[in-house]
Amino acid sequence: MKIFLDTADATKIRECAKTGLVDGITTNPTLIAKAGRKQEEAIKEICSIVKGPVSVEGVGEKAEEMVRDGKEFAAWSKNVVVKVPMTKEGMVAVKRLREEGVKTNVTLIFSAAQALLAAKAGADYVSPFVGRLDDMGEDGMALIEGILDIYSNYEFETEVIVASVRHPMHVVEAAEMGAHCATVPPEVFEKLFLHKMTEDGIKRFMDDWKKVQK
Ligand code: G3P
C-alpha cells in the first residue's frame, strides 16, 4: 500500500521523506492556508522533495474553472495530480482533464455511489474521507470496503486513497482491505513507527550490552 502525507508543510514533508517511506503528497486549500504560503511556490517545493504524485486542489466550482486551474497546476510539475470535488461539474472536468492527459483525484467522496461515478468519469484516484464519516457516527472504513468491492467487480483502474485519516488503525485497516493508498497527517505517520515494547526492548538490549562492556 502506498503511503502519502496529507500536508503542505514542506519542513514536515522533508523530515518524513528521509525515511524513504513517503510515496506521495495530498494537499487541499485548508492545508495550503495552514502552511501560510503561495500555492504555486509550496507545490513546486514539495514536488522537488517527493518524487511521487502530489495532489493539488483549486476552488473553482464550474467545470471550465476546474479545467483551467487544473491545466495550470499540471504545468508546475509532472508529479501534479489535480484534485476535483465530487460534483456534476467536477465529473465533467475529470473527463476533460483526462483528455488533456492530466491526472485527477476526486475528493470529498462520502458514498460508494460517488466513488462509482468518479471511476466511470475516468478519475485516476478517489479520496473517501473516512475520519469525517466517523466523526458523524458513520463507519468510514466500511465505505472503503464497499468501494474496493465495486471497483474489483469491474476492474476499474481508479486507485482508492483512504483520506481524512485520524489514527494508525485507519492505516492498518486500509492495508488489510487492500486499499491502494492511505494519506496520513505527519503526526499519524510518526505514530506508525511506535510501539512501547519496541522502545522497552531497545532499552533492555542497551542496558544488557553496557553491563559487559567494562
Ligand atoms: O485528504 C483529505 C483530508 O485532508 C481531510 O482531512 O482531517 O480535514 O478531515 P480532515
Structural description of this entry:
The chain is an alpha/beta fold. It has a single domain (2-212), classed as TIM Barrel, CATH 3.20.20.70. Helices cover 54% and strands 17% of the residues. The protein has eleven helices and eight strands. The protein has helices at residues 10-17, 29-35, 39-49, 63-76, 88-99, 112-121, 130-135, 140-154, 168-177, 186-192, 196-211; strands spanning 2-6, 24-26, 54-57, 80-85, 104-109, 125-128, 159-162, 181-184. Strand 4, helix 5 and strand 5 (104-109) form a beta-alpha-beta unit. Helix 1 (10-17) packs parallel to helix 3 (39-49), helix 4 (63-76) packs across helix 5 (88-99) and helix 8 runs parallel beside helix 9. The longest helix has 16 residues, at 196-211. The protein is globular, with a radius of gyration of 19 Å. The model has no long low-confidence stretch (mean pLDDT 98). Residues 6, 26, 28, 127, 129, 131-132, 163-164, 183 line the site of SN-glycerol-3-phosphate.
Q: Specify the structural class.
A: alpha/beta
Helix content, binned percent? 40-55%
Gross CATH architecture = Alpha-Beta Barrel
Ligand inventory reads: SN-glycerol-3-phosphate
Task: Let me know the largest β-sheet.
Answer: 8 strands, parallel, barrel
Distance between the termini: 46 Å
CATH classification, class level? Alpha Beta
Strand order of the largest sheet: 1-2-3-4-5-6-7-8
- Strand % is 15-25%
Remind me, CATH topology? TIM Barrel
Enumerate how many helices there are, as a single number: 11
